[in-house]
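REVIEWER CHECKLIST
Item 1: Sequence provided? yes
Item 2: Single chain? yes
Item 3: Sequence as submitted:
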Amino acid sequence: MLTFEKIAPFGANSYPMGRDNTLIYVIAGIILLHFIVGIGYLLYKLTKKK
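Item 4: Structure as written out by the authors:
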């Protein structure tokens, strides 16, 4: 009987980076920080006394 379990080099259920989502969390944190800093800067610029 033909099975396909050994075709994938790292196994059928493994990923090159594993199941670690740390990189995704770091990128999401940088994007979120970017928006928070941007909104804070806009509020600062709009409420500054002339």
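Item 5: Key structural point noted by reviewer: The chain has a mean pLDDT of 79.
Item 6: Recommendation: ____
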